[in-house]
């Protein structure tokens, strides 16, 4: 039976650097333009990071986020989902600065501390556009992305309880699902929980069909009917695992944050190109894409934490 499938688009992120693709949006105008195009192509949720417009370095500057959100909000009604992950080199206060100021309807929330290895990417390039890029990637050999239980509780309290945001709970391994279940039981997050299964990041669970089945079975056991899930798979695994997630009854996330390509050996020219591709797949499977309002209703957005 046809059902609405929520497409999330992660527009720029903090993983890829300017050298890797000329199509990666870096300025507030470019990020907003690509976000709106992605929404027009079918994305109901836009997952947003900011970058220094001069260098492309990931930024936590609330003024940049404010400009991005303002430009998008004036042109479409997609759900705007602000990152609280930022990058592993930011402090918690830096990562939360924009969301604390702007009070969005939705925020991302990584459900644990982890090794987050970007350093293998540094070996693929030699002619860098900016001096900061190789060092930024290599630093992930020694830097841990931190989200302690105390950090998670701070985010839930500041943005969920007081701010009324719902969360995209990013789970990079099965242990993160235990943390989701713990906070659901404690009442710090409320059903329906929106879990983003994340595959293919070095330090997290690998991008294999068996692992998707394992994550879903674990979430089913721990969360029962209290959750909805989406699939995010890095790099070349983006479309295959995303499609599998839809077949299993879930939703899907695409975007240049997670994958720079549209096909083998070919860079995606925009976020909208990836959204259009997954939309075609969703519709060929007999489903339809969710509107922003349907996404809000499905995930309880606007009803608090």
Automatic annotation (TrEMBL):
PANTHER family named in the record = 3-KETO-5-AMINOHEXANOATE CLEAVAGE ENZYME, 3-KETO-5-AMINOHEXANOATE CLEAVAGE ENZYME-RELATED
Taxonomic lineage: Bacteria, Pseudomonadati, Pseudomonadota, Alphaproteobacteria, Hyphomicrobiales
- Cofactors demanded by this protein: Zn(2+)
Protein name, please? 3-keto-5-aminohexanoate cleavage protein
- Per the record, a Pfam family? BKACE
Question: Does the keyword Metal-binding belong to this entry?
Answer: yes
- TM helices/strands, residue ranges: none
| InterPro entries per the UniProt record, alphabetical | Aldolase_TIM, BKACE
Q: Does the keyword Zinc apply?
A: yes
- What keywords are annotated for this sequence in UniProt? Metal-binding, Transferase, Zinc
Which species is this UniProt entry from? Answer: Ancylobacter koreensis
